[in-house]
Amino acid sequence: MSDELRNVWTIKSRWPTKRQSYWSPLPYPTDGGRVAVYPPETADAAETASCMQCGRQFTADEYQAYLRAYNASRQTIGDTAADAPLRTRQGAAAREL
């Protein structure tokens, strides 16, 4: 019995059933703080983001607009990493299909 429980907990730790928040690779433009992105709590909710330095909350639309602007600016300045744009909700949805 204990071996089976150990296997269940091992599997659960490797493949979580709830999405976890993550750090955005983008700094907040005004103060350079780290931006944490939180997954939606329910199926009809949207993801949110907030700056850890100043506490500003972003709506999902604001954060997506910020990502698009950042990706466009990287392409404009010729950043070689711009070939792989940072993930957006639409990009992730397109990859899932």
Instruction: State the helicity in percent bands.
Output: 40-55%
Please work out how many helical segments DSSP would assign: 3
Supply the helix-strand structural class.
alpha+beta
How many DSSP E strands?
4
Rg from alpha-carbon coordinates: 17 Å
Low-confidence stretches: 90-97
Q: What's the main sheet like?
A: 4 strands, antiparallel
Q: What is the element string, with H for helices and E for strands?
A: HEEEEHH
Shape: elongated
Q: Report strand %.
A: 15-25%
Question: Alpha-carbon distance between the termini?
Answer: 40 Å
Structural commentary:
This protein is of the alpha+beta class. Helix content is 40%, strand content 18%. A hairpin with a 5-residue loop joins strand 3 (48-51) and strand 4 (57-58). The longest helix has 18 residues, at 60-77. The radius of gyration is 17 Å and the shape is elongated. Residues 90-97 have low confidence and may be disordered.
Quick gist of this model?
The chain is α+β, with helices and mostly antiparallel strands. The chain has helices at residues 2-14, 60-77, 89-96; strands spanning 22-27, 34-38, 48-51, 57-58.
Topology diagram in text:
Elements lengths: L1 H13 L7 E6 L6 E5 L9 E4 L5 E2 L1 H18 L11 H8 L1
Q: Any descriptors?
A:
97 residues; alpha+beta; 40% helix; 18% strand; elongated; disordered C terminus
